[in-house]
Amino acid sequence: MAKNEIKYLTAIKQEKPKKKFCRFKKYGIKYVDYKDIEFLKKFVNEQGKLLPRRLSGNSLKYQRKVTEAVKKARQMSLMPFVTDLYK
Amino acid sequence: MNNYELMVIFTPVLSEEDFKTSQKKYQDLIAELGGSTVHTNPWGLKSLAYPIQKKTTGIYWVLEFTLPAEGIEKLKIQLLRDEQVMRHMVTRLDKYAVEYNYTKRNGGFAKLDKTEA
Fold this sequence. Notes:
Distance between the termini of chain A: 49 Å
Structural class of chain B: alpha+beta
Strand content of chain A: under 5%
Number of strands of chain B: 4
Shape of chain A: elongated
Helix content of chain A: 25-40%
Structural class of chain A: mainly alpha
Strand order of the largest sheet of chain B: 2-3-1-4
Order of helices and strands of chain A: HHHH
Oligomer: heterodimer
Shape of chain B: globular
Distance between the termini of chain B: 37 Å
Number of strands of chain A: 0
Number of helices of chain B: 3
Largest sheet of chain B: 4 strands, antiparallel
Radius of gyration of chain B: 15 Å
Helix content of chain B: 25-40%
Largest sheet of chain A: none
């Protein structure tokens, strides 16, 4: 019996990761507008970099539309290329 | 006849009526090239996310229009020649985009809050 092994009476409930879903399919959004900054901010982390699909939960088809929209927004300086504590 | 959307950033030093005249100039150019403007939406002075040409603010203008494909080249030449234009972008709109812009203009998204998680 290792000294530091603690026995719990009930099993510890691992925090089940929230089931990710593609919000575009769920809400039937068909077009990602590059002018809608508030919406695009959900797919960008604090440094203004794009979130990968495993974090944003998007399907491939809509992740590509999001990246295209974010890059257009960056081109028209609606969104920064790189920043700190952006949100 | 394709649907396009033009976004232009003018230099902030532009006065109000210059802004109007240049808007009118481009709309006349589009009409002359055989297109028609669907909706014009001047945003006015906005701060930029990063400085362009050493300036941190710009006057934004968004114009949705239809134009035959060969007219775009001429429009682009005019935009490049104009010094007041700091940056411009012409994007092609597919049918979902046109429908999106239409519903957004007529307040279609008031109830559907698509920004929730």
